[in-house]
């Protein structure tokens, strides 16, 4: 007898079986895992992942072990939800269990009643009826007493999923369909940005109203007191501020996902965190934006930095998901802002930032595999894009090629660490020596069919031209080409 139907969202399935969301989506696409209304039945999950062993006993102690195993890396490193949020989530889960228990008690009553009815039939029926009823009662008894197949694994899966729902809840954004988890004490806005989903926002503190969204289902709790910008009639229609609320249950929101044209140019007074020498010729300048004025940007964009009258234009190398941290790569040059970075800037010095600008950004609705190509120091925007793609977790696979000469592969270890950590990520460090056309051919030779790929490439015009022409000849859709001639 199968376990009771219980449906799980795809993102949670991915977490439960320890695979990426894109891997699960690929299984659904290939027909290996079936869904109902975008949800996965628990029995289907048990069938498709027979090798995955959830803990085999439902006692609290065992659940604690499951919890530690499931969340050891993901949640316990971060802050846990506060007591009030935990209490509300437990209460919601308690209500669900109470409803399930009451349903079971009702079924029990119905079965008792059925037994009495069958006894009545036996008393008034003939020999054939008595035999038939006895057979039916025997079958019913056997079925009710038999443990459902896979009962232990199903119980452990339910326990693990329940703990997961207490510790982190899932948010689905409509109409884009993006999904993300909210963990710890994050607001909806903080969690969305951490997951690489650029929802609309402004002040981050409840004053401007630009993060207004509509709650379509689920429950939220106000964690910051400010939501005065919302009118009562808006609140009655489900309006919430993403920067002031955290979810209690899984929620569905109607919210706008911003593109490059939606993000205004901002002027931000940042502070130097550290100047990190990458080699003789390059430095990574790490800046921190004020808590009240974070930089809103998309991976792949660039900004103007200035200090004491010296100015320079740089691609942001960090991910928008890194909150207040901004990283740029600066080449040594005895002039302007570069000179300031190598000779003068110290921790806590002020650097003024103006931006962002640029259209070399991630196509958020694509689920295709990604090829990233960086030429020399154009690694900076590519690094930001790679990290953005990682936090989005939607690409089937990612392949990074870094072509370098004199400057070297100055963050080679980081790229190798990505390849080591992710099953669906490959990295190749290439030399500039053979020349633009040959290097482009060499990269494309690894990908004979580019019909389901997006390419993000940054470098000099000649190299991009060769790469684009070769890629289109191998079936790349013109919409899949994203090239940036470096500044
Ligand atoms: S970002 Fe300004 S109110 Fe939320």
Q: Which parts are unreliable, with pLDDT below 50 for 5 consecutive residues or more?
A: 55-77
- Count of helices? 14
* Largest sheet report: 6 strands, antiparallel
**Which ligands accompany this protein?**
FE2/S2 (inorganic) cluster
Spatial shape: elongated
Architecture of the domain at 369-485, CATH level 2?
3-Layer(aba) Sandwich
CATH class annotation of the domain at 369-485:
Alpha Beta
Structure description:
This protein is α/β, with parallel strands linked by helices and 487 residues long. Among the domains are: 95 residues, Beta-grasp domain (Ubiquitin-like (UB roll)), CATH 3.10.20; 95 residues, Translation factors (Elongation Factor Tu (Ef-tu), domain 3), CATH 2.40.30; 117 residues, Rossmann fold, CATH 3.40.50.80. Helices cover 37% and strands 24% of the residues. FE2/S2 (inorganic) cluster binds next to loops.
